[in-house]
Amino acid sequence: MTDAALSYDNEATAEASFEASPPSSYPPSVQPGIPTLGRKPEGWSRVSIGDLLEPVYRPAKLADDEQYQLVTAKRSRGGIVPRAILYGRDIRTKTQFYVEPDDFLISRRQISHGACGLVPPNLDGAVVSNEYVAFKPKSGLDLRFLQHLSHSVYFQQTCFHSSIGVHVEKLVFKIEDWLEWEIDVPPMAEQRRIADVLDAWDRAIAHTDALIDAKRKRFNWLYSELFPASGTSLPNSWEAAPVTSVAAVRFSGVDKKTVEGERPVRLCNYTDVFNNRRITADMPFMSATAKPREIEAFTLQLGDVVFTKDSETAEEIGESAVVAEPLDNVVCGYHLGVARARPDTMIGDFLALALRHPWVREEFRKAANGVTRFGLNLDVMDQVQVLFPPLDQQEKLVATLNAVEDEIELLTKSLTPLREQKKGLMQKLLSGDMRLSSTESLRGKEDAHAD
Hints:
The protein has 451 residues and is an alpha+beta fold. Helices cover 35% and strands 23% of the residues.
C-alpha cells in the first residue's frame, strides 16, 4: 500500500454516523447464566444466602453545615471507593445511611455488573443513599472468604437473576429474592485456608500492577523531559506542523460484518488500539471480510500508527498504537484511523509518540463532535499540529522511551496469565472441586510474605 492509497477519496472515507450500535451481547461485567449448584462438596453446608448475610440500616440525619464522605461501588467487583465529600445541604438524596468497615456493600442498580465489596477502614462513617444496601455476616462466614466468593461465577449469576428490568443498565436488585438463593460454603477453618491462598495470589497480582504503574510513571516523566511542554517555545531543532504534512492519514470504514463475496481479513479493532501501545502479530485479531479496495487502502504495515477517531467519550479519542511487527492480512477497522509517516520527515514510532502529546490530545478532544458518540473528521487532521525534531533525534528519543515500553510490555504479559491462573484456581476452590489441607494454607501465607 502506497501513500497514494492512503490519500482519501469521498467514497472510501465517507463519514459514518457516530450513533452507538446496539450491543450484541451482555458486557463482560455481567454473568447472565442460570445459577446452578453441582453436588455439594463433602463436609460443606448448603444454605441460603440469607442464612449467611443480613442487611443493616443505619439512618443518617444530614446536617446542612456538616461534611459527609460519599462512596461508590465500582463495577466488576472493583471495590468500595471514595466518591466525594459534600456538605449535607449539597447532597440531593436526603435519605442516607452510614456504613462501617467490613460491611458488604451492594449497589442495587449496578450489582448485575458486580458493583459490590467490603467497606475499607478508611471509609468508616461514610454515607450511601438507599440505592445501596449494606450486609453484615452472620456466624459461620469469614469476611475474606466472602470477598473472594463475590468474584465467583455462581455468585454473580445469583445477583443478575435477582435483578429485574428491561435493560441491563436499568436493572433493580431485589434483595428478598437474592437472599433465598442457595450456596455451598465450607467450614470456617477451610474458608480461612481458601482466603489465605487467594489473598496470596491477589498480593502477587497487586505487586505486578504496582510495578507496571511505576514504569508508566517513569515513562510519563521521561516523555515530559524529552518533549517540549505545551505553550512553551520550541527548541531550535524542533518544528511544529499539521499531522497531514508529516503523515498520510485515512479514516477506516471497514466493519466486523461478514459479507458474501468479500475477501477474508483480520481486523485491528478499537480495543486492540485502546488497550495496547503496540500492535503485534500475536494479538487475537477479529475475523472479518472487506472489499478489495478497502484491503488495498487499509492493510496495516510496519510503522503505521493506528488511532481512535471516535468513541463514547471525547477523552478517549486519539489513543494511538504503532504497528511494531510485520502483520499478515490485518486491516485497520471501523472507529479507527491510520497514519503513515512520511519517511523523509518522521518515523512511525515517533509519530505515535507525537500523537500522544497532551496538546494534541486536547485539540482532538475539543474538535470531537457528536451526541452518543464523539468523533473527528479529516479536516481536523489538517489543523492539529504535532511537534518533532530531526530524524536522528527522533530515533534517539524512540530508543529511550521504547526501552521503558519494553519493560512495561513484559510485565503486562506476565500479569495476564497470573490473573487467569488465579481465576481458575478461585473457581475450583470456591466450588469445592479442589480442597486444601492446613499445610497448603500455611504455604499460601509464606508465599504472601515472600511478595
